[in-house]
TrEMBL record:
Substrate binds at R102. This is Acetate kinase. It holds the Pfam family Acetate_kinase. It comes from Agromyces archimandritae. Its EC number is 2.7.2.1. InterPro entries: Ac/propionate_kinase, Aliphatic_acid_kin_short-chain, Aliphatic_acid_kinase_CS, ATPase_NBD. The gene is ackA.
């Protein structure tokens, strides 16, 4: 049984999952019990002249691409509805009983999936101060979806929720307490939906209760974060108040001495907005190696580009540092789990990240690491004390599952 079906509730209900970014709308129509995606799609370049729709129907192995004009999120929803009408599946036959939304920043207020009402929307809007790149788009998506699906409940699933179990020692910054409290400056952590799903799927793969396991989950996508998961609960994660802290990412610097900002402001005359753009959009492997996409960076490194090689070294050096730190926090590591676009696909990133950890009981099997597969798999050697796994993430499915749990909770036995 797949990790999807194994953890799904027993019903044939269908849920629409929406992930709205500032310029894109990703959607999936999911039947959680069967672990099945009926349709998946993406409306890109919202607000620009040259919008693009991709609509896929996995069962038919069919994919439709169209040029579309989408001035805003509401138009994006109309495009999505048009794609269902034109290419199927029929939303009358497979009517969603709820819409689940990814919301990036839930602050300290939201620690579980939440039914959206007026007050919840006010809170999401208010939390935009802590996630200016993400929450406004998430809210625009919710409002457009409410307009398109006025009859069904809408549920917000927060990236931050899974990390609400972090202890104060892990989430507090060492700055003035009163100032931090007033402005809600603390670490929140992100990618929680993925860390929750992957840590559970890893336990299923190992055939062991998640409560018994201490895991380090490495979500390496465009954004990247590490999470120490003890007994199924997040105890530490690398992203902080915003998704900028921690690992090196496609365009984000991750950890940096904050004094670099003072220096660049005073000496190079960069404004706060310019520094924001520098660290969020022009840094990471793009800034170091000239490519934001790991495939392009790896090709350049293979071709002997020294900047690309250094970018890969910095990227994996940072991962190794976090593995060491989290091993110390956990006291014992049962599994290191790689996930998301880079974690699932890049053998070289996995190999370099774990290089030199043999003394800590981490032994990679070179052949297993190079195998290509979409399934959860073990890539450690048989005599490795720590299991090393690749477990594909599935944020949309996890959002669908959590949404269903809110609108149709399983009966209490
Ligand atoms: N075969 C591959 N080898 C190396 N990197 C890959 C491969 N496939 C995808 N990636 C990388 O995965 C990253 C995107 O990950 P993904 O999880 O899809 O991102 P997000 O969901 O955050 O947009 C990109 O850097 C991309 O280059
Ligand atoms: C929170 C975050 O970094 O998300 P993403 O990886 O989708 O950019
Ligand atoms: Mg992703």
């Amino acid at each position: 049984m797949s990790a999807r079906a194994a953890s799904a509730p027993d019903t044939d209900a269908v849920v629409l999952v929406v992930n709205s970014g500032s310029s894109s709308l990703k959607y999936q129509l999911i039947e959680p019990a069967a672990g099945r995606t009926l349709a998946a799609g993406l409306v890109e370049r919202i607000g620009m002249e040259d919008g693009h729709l991709q609509h896929r129907i996995p069962a038919d192995d069919a994919s439709f691409d169209e040029a579309v004009v989408v001035p805003d999120h509401e138009a994006a929803f109309r495009v999505m509805l048009g794609a269902f009408a034109a290419h199927g599946p029929s939303l009358d036959e497979h009517a969603p009983i709820a819409v689940g939304h990814r919301v990036v920043q839930g602050g300290a207020r939201f620690f579980e999936p939440t039914l959206v009402d007026r007050l919840v929307k006010i809170n999401i809007d208010e939390l935009s101060a802590l996630a200016p790149l993400h929450n406004p788009a998430n809210l625009a998506g919710i409002e457009a979806a409410e307009h398109a699906f006025p009859e069904v409940p809408h549920v917000a699933v927060f990236d931050t929720a899974f990390h609400q179990t972090m202890p104060p020692a892990a989430y507090s910054y060492a700055i003035d307490r009163a100032l931090a409290a007033k402005h809600r400056v603390r670490r929140y952590g992100f990618h929680g939906t993925s860390h929750a799903y992957v840590s559970r799927a890893a336990a299923e793969f190992l055939g062991r209760p998640v409560e018994e396991l201490r895991q380090i989950v490495l979500h390496l996508g465009n954004g990247a974060s590490a999470c120490a998961v003890s007994g199924g609960r997040s105890v530490e994660t690398s992203m902080g108040m915003t998704p900028l802290e921690g690992l090196v990412m496609g365009t984000r610097s991750g950890d940096i001495d904050p004094a670099v900002l003072f220096h660049l402001h005073r000496r190079a005359g960069l404004s706060v907005d310019e520094l924001d753009r520098l660290l969020n959009s022009e840094s990471g492997i793009l800034g170091l190696g000239g490519h934001r996409d790991m495939r392009d960076l790896t090709h350049a490194a293979d071709a002997g580009d020294a900047d690309a090689v250094l970018a890969l070294e910095v990227y994996t050096h940072r991962i190794r540092s976090y593995i060491g730190a989290y091993a110390a926090q956990l006291g014992r590591v049962d599994a290191i789990v790689f996930t998301a676009g880079v974690g699932e696909n890049s053998a070289i990133v996995r190999e370099w990240s774990l290089a030199g950890l043999e003394g800590f009981g981490v032994l990679l099997d070179a052949d297993r690491n190079r195998e290509r597969s979409q399934a959860a798999r073990r890539i450690s050697a048989d005599d490795s004390r720590v299991e090393v796994l690749v477990v594909p993430t599935d944020e949309e499915f996890e959002i669908a599952r959590q949404t269903l749990a809110v609108v149709a909770p399983p009966p209490v036995e």
